[in-house]
Structure formats: C-alpha cells, structure tokens
Design goal:
Elements (H helix, E strand, L loop, with lengths): L8 E6 L2 H5 L7 E7 L1 E8 L7 E5 L9 E3 L6 E7 L7 E5 L2 E4 L16 H8 L8 H8 L3 H13 L3 E6 L2 E6 L2 H4 L1
Parallel strand pairs: 1-2
Antiparallel strand pairs: 2-3, 3-4, 5-6, 6-7, 7-8, 9-10
Length: 179
C-alpha cells in the first residue's frame, strides 16, 4: 500500500473501461469513459490500496454522480464511499481529495471565494427548504462550493439548516431569526 493521494489527476479519456484503466499509473489517477456523453470515471483508488474504482456518471444506469470540470480540476458529487474493499470515503472537489474517514489530518479544502455567499443567499427562500444541489443548479455553481457557502451563512445567522432523512436542507433566515 502506498501513501494516499491528496488530489485527483485526470490523465485522459477513452471509449471503454479497459482503455481508460490502461491510462492509470497510481493513486489519484483518473480517466473518463466517454461514448457520446461522459459514462464513468475510472480511477485508481486514492487510498493506495491498488484497486480500480468505477464511478458511474450516467443516470440511465442506476445511481449516478455529478461531474463538474469547472475550476481547478474535477469535482464529483456526492462523495465516493466504497461499500467493500478498503471502504474509503472521500470527496473530490476541484481536483482536491478530501478524506472523510481516514487520512483527514492532511485535508485542505479548495480556495474559498466569499462572493459566492451573496449568490447562495439570493438563491435561498425563507419558506421552501432547498438542498445544496438544488441551490447549485439554480445559480450554476459547484455543489461543494454552495454547501460550504450555505454553511457559512448558517454560521452568520443568515440561513438555517437541518438534516432530514440523511439530506441537509437550507432556508434563508427570516427577520425574526436575524434580530
């Protein structure tokens, strides 16, 4: 086992899984499988166990992750959580790997732009609960960036949040909450 990766490096794309796998050299390497549309991300497990992970991007083929190529690197949403093998759990956010279970002491989040808070706040409603994913779709931003901004707004008392059935929801704080 080698040291865990701290970033995801997109090394290319291919038409088929075996071709994509051939492009991988080490932990954190990833390749896209594209046939008309992005079908999956094939990656060498970033924890160093040596296994190959397949992350489905095609919603027609069961649970699918969102792929976003804006910013400094690849973003996948939601987090990748392996049910078997090494059982790694990590976030891929603008090319940065953020570990959720092990290896957390070296985690560093991508650079933060506080200007997003205004757009997130404008996208919130005081009565209709929204997920970070719904807000991100509405304002055309990366989900993890929206989630971080929404949580900062909660910390400032400008928004409220709660978890229901495993999903976090956000609303704009109403006047009574602010004063």
């Amino acid at each position: 086992m080698t040291a865990p990766a701290r970033s995801l490096r997109l090394v290319g794309q291919a038409k088929y899984r075996d071709e994509a796998e051939a492009l991988l050299n080490g932990p954190g390497d990833a390749a896209l499988v594209v046939r008309g549309r992005a079908r999956s991300v094939i990656m060498t497990c970033p924890d160093g166990c040596g296994e190959t992970l397949v992350v489905n991007l095609d919603p027609r083929a069961n649970k699918a992750w969102r792929l976003d190529m804006r910013g400094e690197g690849v973003t996948l949403y939601p987090s990748v959580w392996r049910d078997g093998g090494c059982e790694s759990h990590f976030v891929v956010w603008r090319g940065v790997l953020i570990w959720c279970d092990r290896f957390t002491s070296g985690n560093v989040e991508p650079r933060y732009n506080p200007d997003i808070e205004k757009r997130v706040l404008a996208g919130l409603d005081a009565t209709i609960p929204l997920t970070a994913e719904a807000i991100a779709d509405a304002i055309d931003e990366i989900v993890w960036d929206v989630n971080r901004a929404a949580n900062r707004l909660v910390g400032k008392g400008l928004a409220r949040s709660w978890k229901q059935d495993g999903t976090w929801y956000f609303v704009r704080a109403d006047e009574e909450d602010e004063g």
